[in-house]
Amino acid sequence: MFAEGEGSAGRRCRACAHRLTFGRVTATPRSPGRAELAHFLRSRRARVHPEDVGLPSSSRRRTPGLRREELARLADVGVSWYTWLEQGRDIHVSEPLLERLSLALRLTPTERAHLFELAQGRPAARPLMTPTTVSIALRRILEAHPYPALVSTQRWDVLAWNEAASLVYGDLDALPVEHRNGLWSLFMNPERRARMPEWEAAARRAVAGFRLDAARAANREAFDSLAARLVESSPEFARLWGEHDVVEFPEMLKVIIHPELGPIEFENVTLLHAEPDGHVLRVSFYAPRPGVSMERARKLFPRITE
Fold it and tell me: CA dihedral defined by 226, 229, 232, 233, rounded to 10 degrees?
């Protein structure tokens, strides 16, 4: 309804103002991020051949790759909406939609992460993959490190370790694969617990860190499955898990009691490593602190020369 007493001139002015406002919105320059997103989508679409996704190929195609309407159908989105996205318009893009586009465009893990960065300005949730081995290059780096070093999955399943780690944590090969997990052994391995003088603080920190890693995963089902098993098996874990704490700890000090040498303080850092096939691994390196701990480490690790 128009305001009382408003004449035809006023109505015309309001209509003109509406058209001007609409024009300003549609003419807004594209942001650099949206422009880059548009170029990226077009280049990835051109790379996918129709026969790669089960569509008939035709010699009449004027451009390489999929048509917009074909990709929209594969990703279960509207053609107009996808066209706007490729034009770099500032429209809302949800995470499930980006996942469908990633699958339809057959993106690599690196390309998937790049798509999320461009569209949402934040990293994509990390896809949970369950590798059973590590690359030869990474294994060589582990063996070259004179102190303990381990490689684990995002769920803390230990995949590889060096000789020094076996001297500290025992023969990991002797453990069942399902128990070769950093969180599980912390609560369910009495020998490891006995070697940790500050076990309570370490356990609390580990549970909070595991909860944070679970939240970052694209699919946390495997994390929740492990947590459920621990809740049933360990009242202490159940208590800490119920507190819902989260913490980031890429660096820390770990104290481990050796049965013959006594306590050794290790500085520990955990780095994220992307393997050639795209899955992300956690690589933990240990180094003894200078002083008494270094002197004890020289006796424990024969490869130390200084």
Answer: -100
